[in-house]
Design a protein that fits this description.
It is a single chain. The protein has 390 residues and is α/β, with parallel strands linked by helices. The chain folds into two domains: 144 residues, Aspartate Aminotransferase, domain 1, CATH 3.90.1150; 227 residues, Aspartate Aminotransferase, domain 2, CATH 3.40.640. Helices cover 43% and strands 14% of the residues. It contains 15 helices and 15 strands. Helix 3 packs antiparallel against helix 12, helix 5 runs parallel beside helix 6 and helix 5 crosses helix 11. The longest helix is centred in the last third of the chain and has 25 residues. It binds pyridoxal-5'-phosphate. InterPro entries: Aminotransferase_I/II_large, C-S_lyase_PatB-like, Class-II_PLP-Dep_Aminotrans, PyrdxlP-dep_Trfase, PyrdxlP-dep_Trfase_major, PyrdxlP-dep_Trfase_small.
């Protein structure tokens, strides 16, 4: 566990989180706790595999062969009990590129796509950028927990003739790991109205005790045929810069359309080092991942305990997975501009603006807890001190 406590400066590595922070927050003393990557080193087995590959010295076009597909298949089977056929896999440089490809290949201009808000900001842009319409099914807050309004979901699908649903599971930013029952209800509605499901399950491996990730495609064969699942080892093992990901599509005709779209955009290869990293991570990274999940869960508990015992003005939602905490700052009674400025200038922490996830994020901020405890302690102390100094 010690390696998760080690502070490693990322400044000067062209890190978006650390090196862009000064420009973004206009203050070099702001502690960056925003963009969704981790301040932890990837497992040693991954670094060793990369070093060995780098040592080889030739980085020509590289084939992600059958072996890599088998590793992905095994990972999904052992971590999530989901049995897939390796032939269902399409490689992609990232989940965002995959979402762009999916929207373009499976919907037409003017089509309606439903999302559950507040949600990861690119969900809006991947729809709007291609001339499709966003339909919102806002999540509802009940007893300090975000839940799905199923009636609204079905009504909006019917009213707008929705053809595609982008699911975020686990959900960024609210931290819910949707239960099998919730997913079943959603998928029943989708099946009834022939709505295809795009499941962004990039956070699938980051799950806390008492919760279990269910790939929505694993619910039944008809749902499997309706679903396109976007996955990646990059959140799990902190490899986002290596841009290596994949899509799982069981329906052959949907997969054909999607593959054609990737092909037409010239996306037919994976990053050489990304393949090596993914292979090593899936083969040797499980023990490290178990430790990571324990660390993240203890960080969640730490943040909740401190904030709730030291101020009554902020409320932290108990994330069930991911390393992102959604904080209700409405008790501060500030408008969004004031809240952003308060966190930046008074608390000197760089958080994600709640409104970037949709209007439902007004009065909220998102905090990244995937950092050594010392950084987390510093960030939380800054927030609490600033709140209490008001
Ligand atoms: C829900 C979700 N999807 C996709 C991504 C980004 O995926 P990628 O880096 O593979 O494009 C993120 C990153 O934060 C995310 O939270």
């Amino acid at each position: 566990m010690e390696h998760f406590n080690q502070f490693i400066s990322r400044k000067g590595t062209r890190s978006v989180k650390w090196d862009m922070a000064e420009e973004l927050y206009q203050d070099k003393d702001v502690l960056p706790m925003w963009v969704a990557d981790m301040d932890f080193k990837t497992p040693e087995a991954v670094t060793n595999a990369l070093m060995e590959r780098v040592e080889h010295g030739i980085f020509g076009y590289t084939l992600p062969d059958r072996l890599v597909k088998n590793q992905i298949t095994e990972w999904l089977s052992k971590r999530h009990g989901w049995e897939i056929d390796p032939e269902w896999i399409t490689y992609s440089p990232g989940v965002i590129p995959s979402l762009h490809m999916i929207i373009q290949s499976l919907t037409d201009i003017g089509d309606h796509v439903i999302i559950q808000t507040p949600v990861y900001p690119p969900f809006y842009s991947v729809i709007k950028d291609h001339g499709r319409h966003v339909v919102k099914n806002p999540l509802v807050l009940k007893d300090n927990r975000y839940e799905i309004d199923f009636d609204d979901f079905e009504r909006k699908i019917k009213e707008n003739g929705v053809t595609l649903f982008i699911l975020c599971n686990p959900h960024n930013p609210v931290g819910r790991v949707w239960t099998k029952e919730e997913l079943k209800r959603l998928s029943d509605i989708c099946e009834k109205h022939s709505v295809k499901i795009v499941a962004d399950e990039i956070h699938a491996d980051l799950i806390f005790s008492g919760h279990k990730h269910t790939p929505i495609a694993s619910l039944s064969e008809p749902i499997n045929q309706l679903t396109i699942t976007c996955l990646s080892p990059t959140k799990t093992f902190n490899l986002a810069g290596l841009q290596t990901s994949y899509v799982v599509t069981a329906d052959a005709s949907i997969k054909k359309k999607l593959d054609k779209q990737f092909h037409n955009q010239g996306m037919m290869m994976l990053n050489t080092l990304g393949i090596t990293a993914m292979e090593a991570a899936y083969e040797h990274g499980e023990e490290w991942l178990e430790e990571l999940n324990e660390v993240l869960e203890s960080h969640r508990d730490y943040v909740m305990e401190r904030i709730h015992s030291e101020t009554s003005l902020l409320k932290v939602f108990p994330a069930e997975g991911t390393y992102l905490l959604w904080i209700d700052c409405r008790g501060l009674q500030m408008n969004q501009k004031e809240l952003k400025s308060f966190m930046q200038k008074k608390a000197k922490v760089g958080l994600n603006d709640g409104v970037s996830f949709g209007d439902e994020g007004k009065g909220f901020m998102r905090l990244n807890i995937a950092a050594p405890k010392s950084i987390l302690e510093e960030g939380i102390s800054r927030i609490i001190d600033a709140v209490n100094a008001q």
